[in-house]
Structure formats: C-alpha cells, structure tokens
Specification:
Layout: E1 7-9, H1 14-22, E2 29-30, H2 45-64, E3 74-84, E4 87-89, E5 91-92, H3 95-105, E6 109-119, E7 125-136, H4 141-150, E8 156-157, E9 170-174, H5 177-181, H6 185-194
The structure holds thymidine-5'-triphosphate.
Thymidine-5'-triphosphate binds near residues 13, 32, 158 and 182.
Cofactor: a divalent metal cation
GO cellular component, one term: cytoplasm
Catalytic activity: UTP + H2O = UMP + diphosphate + H(+); dTTP + H2O = dTMP + diphosphate + H(+)
Length: about 210
C-alpha cells in the first residue's frame, strides 16, 4: 500500500492541507499550480470545477515529469466553485467583489461544487465533482459590513469561508460540509484508498 510520502498536493490552499491533516494525511509535497481559472462562456459550475481540478493536477504532473525523485507519486488537486443558479461567483480578491457576492447569497440557496482529481503513479486520472447545497439567512447591512471588515472573504470562492464567521449565516446545508470548505473528505479518501493509497497510515495518536 502506498504511504503518505508519495502524495503530492497540487494546492496552495491552507484549508486543503488542514482538511487532509484532519484525516491524518500529510502530503509529502505541496505544489501550488497557477492556472487560468476563467470560466468559459456559459460554462456550468460542475464542468468548471472538474476542468480546473484536472488542470491543476495535470500541471503538477508536467512539473514532475521525468524527475526520478517523484516516480511512484500520487498527485491530488481540487477546485471549489460557488454558484447561484448558473451564475458562477468569483474567488474574491477585492472587497467590492465580496460585497456583491454576499448580497447575492443573502437569503437564498446556492451550490458549492468541488472538483477533485487524483493522478496515480501509473498516470491513471480519477476525478469527481461533489456538490453541496447551502442556504444563507437574510444578511443585514451590519452583517455584511462586519463580514467585509473581517477579511475572511479574501481568496475564497463565493466570498465566504463557512469554517469561520460565515458558518453563522448558514440556515441549511444539504451534503458534505468539508466539500464547501474545499475538499470533500469522504470522497477524497475513497478515491485515494480505491487507488491503493494507505489512508490509515497517519491515523496514529497525535
Ligand atoms: C466556499 C468556501 C471556499 N473556501 C476556499 C477553499 C479554497 O481555498 C478557495 C477556493 O479557491 P480554489 O481556486 O478552489 O483554491 P485556491 O486557489 O485557494 O488553492 P489551490 O488552487 O492552490 O488549490 O476558497 C473556504 O475556505 N471556505 C469556504 O466556505
């Protein structure tokens, strides 16, 4: 069975590292991949999450190609997309983007799609997209202004982080919580163990 020392996480997201650690998995290498995340015209959020997670994993594969140090490595990547209907919300880097996203999310349901892609040592490509339905309470002006000043929206799909203050906005969640944070743990571990990775290797007392 493969061990943790063969896992490359093609991500710079601290949340994804934390989520894997939560499941006792510590990647041997972090390889953030900078790819163009612009959605195609009228691209469905599910297809965008699939395409970007696969793109990140393939970019990491290209980066290690031919390097004997990485022979036998597994590459894991993910991409999280938030949508209201067919409308894809941006990963917010500017406060006005976050403000528009929060106004749009207020008092309604939205969906969070996370694509997960695993490339195995024999270069098999496995991918899944998991979606979670989330309903926010109606956000007051004070809620939104206070959230914006918290800065927790920075670098987050849809302008919020459910694992922080925005957890208090959620009136209903149907599906995987970890999927919203950025990596659906149940499905990711199933993918890894299904491809021969020993997901229990790190389940020792901390
Ligand atoms: C919706 C939501 C997103 N997020 C984060 C997860 C991701 O880090 C980010 C979505 O952007 P992504 O492009 O999926 O990931 P990233 O750019 O942060 O990292 P990388 O591409 O290197 O893997 O939003 C939360 O932390 N909490 C949430 O509730």
């Amino acid at each position: 069975m493969a061990q943790t020392d063969t896992l490359i996480l093609a991500s710079g997201s601290p949340r994804r590292v934390e989520l894997l650690a939560q499941a006792g998995i510590e990647p041997a290498r972090l390889m953030p991949m900078d790819i163009d995340e612009t959605p195609k015209r009228s691209e469905h959020p599910r297809s965008l999450a699939r395409r970007l997670s696969t793109g990140k994993a393939q970019a990491a594969l290209a980066a290690i190609k031919g390097d004997p140090a990485f022979a036998g490595s597994y590459i894991l990547a993910a991409d999280t997309v938030v949508s209201v209907g067919r409308r894809i919300l941006p990963k917010t880097e500017m406060i006005d983007e976050a403000s528009s996203a929060l106004h749009l999310l207020s008092g309604r349901s939205h969906r969070v799609f996370t694509g997960v892609c695993l490339i195995t040592p024999d270069r098999t490509v496995r991918q899944k997209v998991i979606d979670t339905k989330v309903r926010f309470k109606r956000l007051s002006t004070t809620d939104i202004e206070a959230y914006l000043s918290s800065g927790q929206w920075r670098g987050k799909a849809g302008g919020y982080a459910i694992q922080g203050i925005a957890g208090s906005f959620v009136v209903k969640l149907v599906g995987s919580y970890t999927n919203v944070v950025g990596l659906p743990l149940y499905e990711t571990l199933a993918l890894l163990s299904g491809e021969g990775f020993d997901v229990h290797a790190g389940w020792t007392d901390a």
